[in-house]
Amino acid sequence: MVSRLLLSRRYSTPLAALLPLFLMACQGAAPAIDKPTTLVRVQTVAIVDYAPDIVINGEVLARNEVPLSFQSSGQLIAVQVDTGDHVEAGAVLARLEPKVQQANVSAAQAGVLAAKAAVGQANADFTRQNALFDQGLVTRSLFEQAQTTVQTAAAALDVANAQLATAQEALRQTILTASVAGIITERNLSAGEIAQAGQPVFTLAADGPRDAVFNVQEAVFLAQPPGEHGVIESVDNPTVTATGTIRSVSPVLDAKTGTVQVTVSIADPTGDLPLGSAVIATVKARAFPAVILPWSALWSDAGKPAVWTVDPADSSVALTPVGIGAYVTGSVIIASGLEPGKVVVVDGAKLLHPGQIVSTTAEASK
Predict the structure, then answer these.
(1) Residue 303 DSSP code
(2) Which of 2, 120, 164, 316 gives 108 a disulfide partner, CB atoms 3.0 to 4.6 angstroms apart?
(3) Closest CA to 240 of 214, 222, 266, 262
(4) How far apart are CA 149 and CA 146, in angstroms?
(5) 102-151 pLDDT, tens per residue?
(6) pTM for the predicted model, two decimal places
(7) 270-299 pLDDT, tens per residue?
(8) 137 burial via Cβ count (<10 Å: 0-12, 13-18, 19+)
């Protein structure tokens, strides 16, 4: 009797605790366990015309650059300007040693004096012969000879005058002057050096229109050709801007750099964009249809770009391969792989796996 009582007391509490479970089992009921779903942010795909900004670096140059050189050879005895100087038209830039040219001028002047004396002597002789011929005291041949001497002396004087003009011009050419007003952008020789005829001593950037010259990768023109207009911005001072229009595109590709030279005309250039200053041009490329998604939407499927899409029927997710059109700040441009109306996960994709059920919160399409 005592033993039965002890056993009854020992197992009464555990059995009581198991009684509810026993009753539930008898009734065929089981405890319900809710499986949590992953909350993600999604965006509905919409096709838009996307025109990306193309940013290129360049330099401000003069529309017209003039090489300045001497027309004769000689030693430079003076260089009166330097790179960066602004000069007016006719300003003296440099001088050659003029001793030879001055000697030639002196000789030519002497030749003119001699020719003038010969003309005077010939005219006097012709006057005398003409008077004697009228009196019948000399023959016609002597008269005609005097007449020919006058003509020959006059021709010799013309030659002497031409030689003097040539010598004087050669002397003037020992002084190099600016053909137009502008800025000296390059100096190639210094005082004491020998300047050859036609060798550029200076390069002069003429006052007037200014261009910005850019070396642009060929791929830009093949994939997304730029429009005709853009904004030019100073690298040193971003607040200084100007409107630019593409004036010319070089038909020749630089084989070393793979770039094409693009010249952009600057509208109303100011002193805030001086020659040689570095500038940035922003131009719009030609638009193409695309989908714009945040960077966070991009995923990788076996090393290829993909995004997670949500099946509206059962809220499951799957990886969808996509083609990338461009990468921009904060966004990725999808060129192919997504149809309008598709729902794409743009945030919360880190813990997803194919077939997973998600709950969504929408983000407006871009």
Answers:
(1) T
(2) 164
(3) 266
(4) 5
(5) 999 999 999 999 999 999 999 999 898 888 888 888 788 888 888 899 99
(6) 0.58
(7) 667 888 889 988 877 777 788 999 999 999
(8) exposed
CA distance linking residue 97 with residue 191, whole number of Å: 10
Contacts of 144 (CB under 8 A, 6+ apart): none
What pLDDT is stored for residue 8 in this prediction?
42
Give exposure, 167-179, as e/b (b: 16+ Cβ within 10 Å): beebbebbebebe
Residue whose tokens read 């922003």: 282
What is the helix (H) or strand (E) element at residue 121, kind and residue range? helix 99-134
Contact 290, 51 (CB under 8 A): no
Widest pairwise Cα distance in the chain: 198
Is 227 buried (19+), middle (13-18) or exposed (0-12) by CB count in 10 A?
A: middle
- Give me the residues paired with residue 42 across strands: 345, 362
Please report which helix (H) or strand (E) contains residue 151, including its range: helix 140-172
What burial class does residue 320 get, using C-beta atoms within 10 Å of its C-beta: 0-12 exposed, 13-18 middle, 19+ buried?
A: middle
- Of 211, 221, 209, 222, the C-alpha closest to 281 is 211
